[in-house]
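Suppose a classmate hands you a notebook page containing two proteins, each written out with its sequence and a corresponding row of structure tokens. How would you begin to make sense of it? This section walks through that situation. The first entry is reproduced here exactly as it would appear on such a page.
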Amino acid sequence: MVQFSTLIAPLLTLVALSGGAVWTGATSALGAAPWWAEKVVWAGLPAGIALAATAWLLAPSRRPRLLTLAALTVIAFTLARYGQANAVASAPEAPELAAQTWYFGWFATCALATATVASLFRYHRPAH
């Protein structure tokens, strides 16, 4: 089991980065709707921590885990931008799917970005 003291610095770093993203309006500047731009950051934080913990428990080596999470973050961001473009373009018709793609794409982007940053830290497994 990992000691709690080894998790304090990563958790504080993730909270500080999330707070910085909210404070600077980074998600809004990158295309999230102002109404929920802050919400996806704070919702993505615990989801990303859980995802990083799950990936760590599954024990793939560090480099493939980082590359996979980073690639998934880029894919999620691309889907969010695609959803944004289609939600704006089809506003009067039926924008539900596009708007959902936009929102959930941003939620996935924040969660995966959190998991990627969390995976940058080294957590030691105890020897049996």
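The notebook's second entry, a different protein, reads as follows.
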Amino acid sequence: MKCDIKTGRVVEPVSSTELFPTTGNGVVGEVFFDSKSTSTVSRVFRVSVNEALILTAFNLSGEHIDNGPDKWQTCEAVEVYKVSPIVHELPRGDSCCGQYGEPDNSVIREEVKAQTDCCAWRLICGSPMAVIALPGYYRLKLTDEAMVGRVYVEGERVAGVPIPNNLIFGG
């Protein structure tokens, strides 16, 4: 059996592009949460050196009000966590190592909420897109159980593309 080892879940192609957002090369990006999700925690994923991961969240509800000093929000959020997984050695050749050809890196040694200058990395209703540009292992968490199966979060890997600083977490 020949399979590719990928960090994303296998996504079956669909005939209607209205059902799923598509990437520049015509295929669906990495899906972290969708209608089939059953947990508030995503799988562990890696951002490599010389690449960035553009995260986009769809169907986040809530309000983000900016009245000068009286800022407040009642937004659902997708939080980013930096993790230190125990990564097992990947098999060689054409063999698969997991249900979808993914490494079994579900054992987490340490975990910390990703933040820069006391500002947490998260996607909210008023800002549903952001970029992770720091290499490392990460996972995403939904802030509310009611978001499971309703919120759709995907990632698109890019390399060698200029990205505006205001979209980069910590930028």
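A careful reader of the second entry would note: The two ends are 44 Å apart (CA to CA).
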